[in-house]
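CHAIN AND CONFORMATION:

***
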Amino acid sequence: MNLHEQCLLRYLTHPDELSFVTEVLKINNKILEQKFIVKNILANMSLLNYTEGVNDSSS
């Protein structure tokens, strides 16, 4: 069971905790977004900077 399923189950069993569950999901989504940015965007930028530096020095 993933976090979203756990939050849904918790909401269904304790509907008064909706705001807490919503905050947990927001935090989880923010963490996933940051991991995606680090893994896909920043890593690619470093690779581009490295290859540009190598190409510039060989000219």
